[in-house]
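Quarterly update from the structural biology core.
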Amino acid sequence: MRKPTDRQSPWLAALGCVLSVLLALVMQAAPTRLVDGVNIMPTWPLVAIFLWSGVRPQFMPPIAVFAIGLTQDLLTGAPMGVWALSYLIAIAAFRFRGEDGMPRDLPPVLLRFAGTLLLAHGIAFTAGSFALEQMADLQPLIIEIVATLLMFPLVAYLVLRRRRSGRSGFIGG
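Predicted structure, tokenized:
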């Protein structure tokens, strides 16, 4: 017998995955500047990759993560391969594994995402610096890290809230 969360059609979940990733990429590429010209945009594609790889890992194979990173590089004007490399390594290092997958409690998910985010941006900074043959600008990456860390709990709460099960926890599973 399948789990209650597996009763949904896999096609509907796959469509949700594709649409959420496309929306994340469009939002990442959208120009959102403050008065001084500082771009404040969370790293939405990494949020989508992290959550889908925890909820439905079969929808986020390494080739999909790589393609999402290359698409982000193309849309944002970053050196090609920087975000693809950083997403692949960060997700490989911090992806939830095991039979249970992503826990239903928010604190462990937040901690693991913070590690994923810091590793991805560290790799992007290093790879971008090598690609540009000079030090990449650190200020936009720091702003992205802070903005992403501020927005992730809300998105994660909404995703984890839908994943109810027999186990109790912080989210009320």
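The helical segments are 10-29, 44-55, 62-76, 82-94, 106-132, 138-162.
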